[in-house]
Queue: 3 jobs
Job 1
Amino acid sequence: MSLIRSLCFLSFSLEVLGATCFTSQERLPGDPCGTDIAAALTSEDRVGCFCAGNWDAGDYQQLERSTNHGSVVYSIERTDNTVPLKYCEEAFNNIIDECILDGNTWGGVFSFDGEVYNISNTYHHGNYHGNIAGNFHGNFYGDFHVNFNVCVYVSDSFVCTPNWKLDGNLV
């Protein structure tokens, strides 16, 4: 009975906390509606696959991870890599429900218990038409390695390059 009560409280806690929507990424007239965006983000169990993929406890390099669907990026940050993610699917679904379906934004952030989940649009009105989104490793005064996608908005859709890589050395 105590376990059931604890699970109910945790579920209630996540609902009460909720997502913080990105009001700076408000959808404008002509943008896709919330139901279309949510359908694309949840098709083919994208959230479940992202949450399930390669998050082994103790993997010191897995404190941050991101993936994208077109220009929309899902990202996860955590402070403790010794335990598996606890709130992944619930957090992303909360952002989709509150910010994309019920709100008028492209996404938001959900933070709880050392885990931060984020959905955002790398191309947003007022941003450049070409956009670089990726993970930067290293330091800009020495060797660096960059993985990125370049997305260009063309005729009401995005065209993205597959993972470009850039290695170099700045002196």
Job 2
Amino acid sequence: MMKQGFQLNTTQKLKMSQKQMQSLNILTMDQTQLLEFMQNEYLENPMLEYTGGQDGVYGADDISSRYEHAITYEKTYEELIEEDDKRRRDLPDTEPELVKKTLLYQLPFQDFTEKQWELFNYMIDCLDETGFFTMSLEETAFKAHVTLQEAERALDILKGLEPHGIFARDLRECLLIQLDFKGMKGTNTWKIVEEYLEDVAKGRIGTISRGLSLSTAQVRLCIQQIAHLNPRPMNFVAAGDKNKYIIPDILLKKEQGVWRAELNDGWIENYQINDYYIRIMKESQDEELCLYFQKKLDRVRLIQEGIRQRRQTLIDITTAIVAHQTAFFDGNGLLAPMTMAELAGELNIHASTVSRAAKGKYIQCRQGTLLLRDLFSAAVSSGDDEAAVNADNIKDMISRLIKEEDRKKPLSDQKITNALKEKGIHVSRRAVAKYREALGIKGSFERKL
């Protein structure tokens, strides 16, 4: 009995460990990773059913007809293979739905009429695969039953959404919109895109150089900047695309004067336990088959619990962040100092849990789509003292350093990194470059007189 009790206790600990590991794994996933994880699980696990779409992946007639047949182990195995092929064919492309929802959530609900919302929905549906809006405004107005002026106004509003460049009429306008948001309107790079984009494509550096009275080195530098722009603002196909648009995990909306956090994961509800296979498992006399389905069912339940915990943790953390940073989200101030450890203490959870939850997650608010981590302060050591320094503080310091630099010998990113280190701020050169670019400040070579 003692041995049996020991084995039971060990099994319980093992199950608890598996549950904790799965929950932590799901907690660290961002929106795109979770979507991919659920799609892969759906392909591999017959106990997971997708119920989205008009009739779901499987219609009621399909389930009934299959259930009429007598079930043997061999027969079910063959059906599983056939079904796997069908599941791969029928797996819905959820990402475009998320994109549409993400675009619409950037628009303040109270600012538009129902008619305008219908027009926005229609125009989003008309985007091509690159994110361009190529339909004429006359045709848009006719098909959407609005005036030409209303269609023009709607397009102007939609061009202000992220990813920058979406709803452009063509590649040139797409790139110009991005340069405008970077504060580069009227620069040499802007002029090259506006007047010499075809020459850029054909490598006619000499033509551009003569036309704008620039050195070839200056032209090449401008072309490098153009290369970092996104020519396909809604490109979700290419794996590892560095310009892939970020789908936020959390949406922050103001309702009746109060900020409310909402997870951008409504699609998860379309994944449910498959009742058809539950019935098979209960009625089958095949022990091996029952064990197989029970194992798959346990895994689905484990995943569902992990997702539930992920949702609750993210909502709790975001709600606490908003309580601390209300002035920032209202647009009335900078971020207040707040570390992950401090927030963890308030929520009575471990700091590592906050860190895992914030990893790679984005929140969409009126300030744009921000990394959740950037809303926290970093604990930075300065001798024996500890100071909380957030992203805005670091940007301000970088801005001041550059304003005070010798324009004949501008500071490189590495020198800025070293200067911050002397002040007790330990950030990488890459982070400095990211903050500098976010401020719209050019590199040292371009700043040199």
Job 3
Amino acid sequence: KLKEVIRANDDLYFVFEYLDQNVYQLIKDRTTDLPESQVKSIIYQTLEGLAYMHKHGFFHRDLKPENLLATGDIVKIADFGLAREIRSRPPFTDYVSTRWYRAPEILLRSTSYNSPIDIFAMGAIMAELYMLRPLFPGQNETDQIYKTCAVLGSPDKTDWPEGFKLAAQIGFSFPKFVSTSLSTIIPNASAEAIDLMEKMMQYDPQKRPTASQCLEHDYFKDFVAPVQTSIYGKSNKGFFNKANDTTSNMRKSSGMSKRLESRKSKLESRGVNKNSFYKSKQK
């Protein structure tokens, strides 16, 4: 949630609510699997956010574990620097989304992609939460396609003709791979989880379910989302909790908050606040 907007000279400062950590930090040093209930909670809340975002006409374009922030049991999507309007007219840039979570159509330089790229990224993130490592750790764009095909199998021309057109335009030929069952790669995932991931990571973006459809999947049957509480009130004792002194040390080590407060005071003394900023933008 955006808490404040501060304008100082030619600089804009956006002050957001503070969340303890991101999902990458949650899994990077783990040596034991995340319980499926935790994976389910993370994915459900993120899909809720995506469903809301897509409904209101935007898609994120850079979903990855680092951009999923959390506090208590609550997960929120961050970093909308690459977000676009769904109704925006192509062409879009093909260099979006962090490589390991990049949908095949983007890897093939499509300039007319849309919100299904967020769904593919969610499938890759979900797999990573179970595996505790990336599903498609490509070293470059070409290797990324190879890594994707090695898991999902090579696409069939009849199933995704648009993909073969894109490949031909850049002189690329798909490698010949037979798909590897996700249940073999991710044995700790339930059958429902495997089915959802397979649907989200289909080659043809038109065949991927929407975020709202994902929320109706059997994987989430009987799931109850955590109740959100204010981060300024009593925090949840959830699976994201970390030692409070880590937060304290982070804040002490950064002088940004003090600099912002100083600038904010100067600005307010000159009658500049977020309301006047918005008014000036509307003129």
